[in-house]
Amino acid sequence: MVENCPAGLEISETDIQVELDRRRPGQSSITTSRKEGDEVEIISGVFEGKTTGAPICLVVFNKGQHSSDYENLRHTFRPSHADYTYQAKYGHRDFTGGGRASARNTIGTVAAGAIARKILKEKAGIDIASYVAKVKDVEVPLPLDLSALEIRTAVEQNSVRCPDPETAQKMIDLIEKTASDKDSVGGVVNLVVENTPPGLGDPLYDRLDGLLSLAMMNIPAVKGVEVGGGFRMLDKTGSEANDIFYNDNGLIRTKTNNSGGIQGGISNGMPILMSIAFKPTATVLREQSTVNDAGEEVMLKVKGRHDPCVLPRAVPIVEAAAALVLVDQWLLQKTARYDGL
Amino acid sequence: MVENCPAGLEISETDIQVELDRRRPGQSSITTSRKEGDEVEIISGVFEGKTTGAPICLVVFNKGQHSSDYENLRHTFRPSHADYTYQAKYGHRDFTGGGRASARNTIGTVAAGAIARKILKEKAGIDIASYVAKVKDVEVPLPLDLSALEIRTAVEQNSVRCPDPETAQKMIDLIEKTASDKDSVGGVVNLVVENTPPGLGDPLYDRLDGLLSLAMMNIPAVKGVEVGGGFRMLDKTGSEANDIFYNDNGLIRTKTNNSGGIQGGISNGMPILMSIAFKPTATVLREQSTVNDAGEEVMLKVKGRHDPCVLPRAVPIVEAAAALVLVDQWLLQKTARYDGL
Amino acid sequence: MVENCPAGLEISETDIQVELDRRRPGQSSITTSRKEGDEVEIISGVFEGKTTGAPICLVVFNKGQHSSDYENLRHTFRPSHADYTYQAKYGHRDFTGGGRASARNTIGTVAAGAIARKILKEKAGIDIASYVAKVKDVEVPLPLDLSALEIRTAVEQNSVRCPDPETAQKMIDLIEKTASDKDSVGGVVNLVVENTPPGLGDPLYDRLDGLLSLAMMNIPAVKGVEVGGGFRMLDKTGSEANDIFYNDNGLIRTKTNNSGGIQGGISNGMPILMSIAFKPTATVLREQSTVNDAGEEVMLKVKGRHDPCVLPRAVPIVEAAAALVLVDQWLLQKTARYDGL
Amino acid sequence: MVENCPAGLEISETDIQVELDRRRPGQSSITTSRKEGDEVEIISGVFEGKTTGAPICLVVFNKGQHSSDYENLRHTFRPSHADYTYQAKYGHRDFTGGGRASARNTIGTVAAGAIARKILKEKAGIDIASYVAKVKDVEVPLPLDLSALEIRTAVEQNSVRCPDPETAQKMIDLIEKTASDKDSVGGVVNLVVENTPPGLGDPLYDRLDGLLSLAMMNIPAVKGVEVGGGFRMLDKTGSEANDIFYNDNGLIRTKTNNSGGIQGGISNGMPILMSIAFKPTATVLREQSTVNDAGEEVMLKVKGRHDPCVLPRAVPIVEAAAALVLVDQWLLQKTARYDGL
């Protein structure tokens, strides 16, 4: 359900489906082999091809699900998964893979994000890209020297969505080996947003970096977020880390970008840079010790088809999550200044 | 302004002042020498020593400010500070150190957090502690083997708020040297929350880790956030990183805590663990190149009294920010289950 | 989409359908003859018959609609309808009777209200009833001397939902005559809520009477709202209008109820009484003068099947709107007092 | 605390004080004789005469209060006042006349409304006026044939704020007689808003008439709200009540205004018309029977200085409440259409 979308925007299922196709399972040998079409239908909020101002209801019916794969999870809590915490919170949970804890819920983020991205691109020229920067200990060499648009193209050239072909192949090899070991790996997705105007974000309680971090941490499996230099800039002193302003033919820019495009919680016009850490997929096909809802210690062997590494499919999710934050802040900024009313 | 505080809670200025005193400037040789009493007054919402259910208005008047220290910032943007982004956003800014971009705004977080902490402690037994884990490259040896309560005591034994005395001294030496170099350093604050009941946090869009990350990123100078293992667990596979459940005399616990006490966005009853990266203070006393609001490149030398390292004073801010998130989620959980109504 | 419903509530399509059937068209000779099944499907948020804590998505597909009935409204604004204001607001509108301006949107209110009502009844014993008190100048004699439960039964004995049979027949006659004149009439629905505990509602900006008024005014065609004595008590002085407290075997009650069960924005435990004015249906089958979207004055004759009087079908809508406000306030009250945590 | 005010608006204490002076007690012989200066101070959010985009904190310290007047209310509930409901809700209340139940809280509405009104006037030319239309059974003859601006002037010519001098005198006589009887009276305030652009308000859950009704019902003592014809148009049929559109030199207007300027929850450009019913002041100086917090029936004689009729002082409150709703909707409308971004 997408609320507060301006009326009169041209939007179709195709605009949304293209992003869902980047997220859906079964795209390649290194993601889950579950076949889920993930076809979106617009149920309301669009009339004769344009948004009406009413909430836009997007539905993706859950078709490829094998409930039988999940029956042994009715009473047993998968380690590092949400089973136990849901049970503790609600006293009741959908254990069949379609509930609120399922990563399938990111379909909603990606679908809504496709609309957000269209507005940002058409009205503000904002370009959003992300890529797999690290899988376990395999890292892409940085800096990339690619624009956001170039990254968008490069990541679609291989199944792991790493823009450097050589690193991509190492990552694919690692993921395939991990899958054959019935294990899983995590890694880092980097986000780049170009052409963001200065001024987005609120200064104190809804800082742009805060809202982006919330959006990223709301993605399942994310355990860390950095903006700009993040943890990696702590070896510098202030005089080394500060981003020095200069006048670039009338445009105020900074010589470095340790701030990651955000200062005082507000965008400064430089590229927004974030790194997002995804833990290794909790669901592994090996037998693991755990407890059941009677508190008994039991052995669990999960069935079904799971991603040995969620990173390649996380790329469109990260972009969508960022687009949703940015479009809200961009719209809010329209009424932030009295001289602009 | 603290809203939605339950009525009938006993609260006094003293309860709040004790936390403000941990945050205020001028506490020691390694923080700013500005003298700010930061005395809190309760203006409304408390009657005969108890909250009334109305919003609680807390005021800390700004007394120690030297506006003259700031006059040279009227037209000039300090590097890596919020000056330029505020000007870009609002077309107008308070350059005198009392505006919304000032870290003085964290007084509000600390004051409100003191109330939140009292509720959490009295009603749920939740203990919140944090400490300086790293200053530039000086790190405390981990794990600490201290409870949250012990950490609270230990950090008050030295001016840098590091619970390990030997490391603390190294950090103090480093900060003093940095100050004499007219430079600044950053570091990491670790957060530990014990006795959180399982079930806090929403599963999808207001995940507990998401809300905590938002709260931390809303603190000035924070550029990175980790929950549990964060970026540091990426070298592990899923079978190594998963936290195995076991039955600890009737209590479901996990053998490791890479999840940092949060799974699927919901607390699991294990200690909540976070690491928060603070960049080096942007305001350094060295001359730096920058631009002014006419776009001209100028040299800037900042006057006044600034922290060479914000970490010691960040400890109560981090705790307060966490308390505010937790008390909201703890209250919300009271109505999450039909069988508890 | 119903959010924040506690987990573990038993709910089925049947619980909801029974209220939708009271609202749907085609129930009798005095409402529109459109046949709309209005069958509700629960798409998410319920698992094995119980709510999961996730948002509950209820869908009623629009089946009986004849779009051709509306083609002549593409460019023409019906008098006193939302056509012109939608066009002015959004520059674009769904003119086919399925848009956000259609009274069909009250299906959502009624469906969600059925869930709210179930919680209020099961957990707090709160009884909600409403009835048609006036159609044009035909009024039910007051006071009724019926409990809320008795009203609920009585209104289902006739097609106009007036609990007094004699008045009901006069109202039916009037509506039938109006329909044969291709005209429409309005009237008043009265609301009675019994067994509300004292203490619901916020004192200042979300007063219970304020929220109920918002909920009622959000129903299409409502143009007036009274709480307790409303406009009708203005001929009294304060000493006459004041509701005197007395002790009714340990229960504090008032001798009169001009306050309508709400004092200072908060329920006082007496029955909540409201009167809601519905204007005559804007869509009449007579030819009317109006303008089109080119600003030309034109004659319009509306086709289709419309209610000559919305009052009978408004009864379940008013009850549902009240239930939604009350359940929110009842849940909020669970955390309003420190001594109850 | 005024949030989301655009940055760069010129605002001073004087802009706000002028409206507070219309609301404050002690203005004339027919209002309370309490002397309260009600002087506003801007504590934050304004720098060098302009708003900064930060929340604007306005403080009016409570100076003229005699707590001793209230001591006999510590345990006793005034009839038709909020004493009992507050006690029931919170278990604790401020009985000294300064709490959240006091009509003094409308100072905040009036102060914030002054800022809203300034924006509406400067940027949209919107004129807001209200007047006392009825005191008990003394009514102003309608229609008035005065513009909103003329009403604003006319109501300041007499102490009761009725724009018709002859009716005003009858009202004053009635109020003075009521006061000498130690009793009170209520009445009706009418609201007129001119030059509202078409398109303000949301169609379904935040309808403009709904939000205005919420705002009015949130004012203490209000028990009824009408938009346009309200309850008074129920004797008409649809064909009589419908407002026929016509083209007034390129402007779409309606021949009548039973809709009160709002159709389908959205403004249509015609004047917004509302009537608001205020019950007789609950606090009368006669002895009344009531109960205390031990449940005992007792006699109560209230001391102090109270308004025998709140209507004259309600005029600026009604205007301010309307301005706050309208400015929010006017700002929201800036981002409602894609073609306007």
Task: Give an account of the 3D structure.
The structure is a homotetramer of 341-residue chains. Chain A has 341 residues and is of the alpha+beta class. Chain A has a single domain, classed as Chorismate synthase, AroC fold, CATH 3.60.150. The first copy, chain A, has helices spanning 13-23, 83-90, 106-124, 148-155, 165-180, 208-217, 238-241, 311-333; strands at residues 40-44, 46-47, 50-51, 57-60, 127-135, 138-139, 187-194, 222-227, 245-248, 251-254, 262-263, 266-267, 272-278, 288-291, 297-300. In chain A, the strands form six sheets. Chain A has a five-stranded antiparallel β-sheet with strand order 6-5-7-13-8. A two-stranded antiparallel sheet of chain A has the order 1-4. Chains A and B meet through helix 2, helix 6, strand 8, helix 7 and strand 9 of A and helix 2, helix 6, strand 8, helix 7 and strand 9 of B.
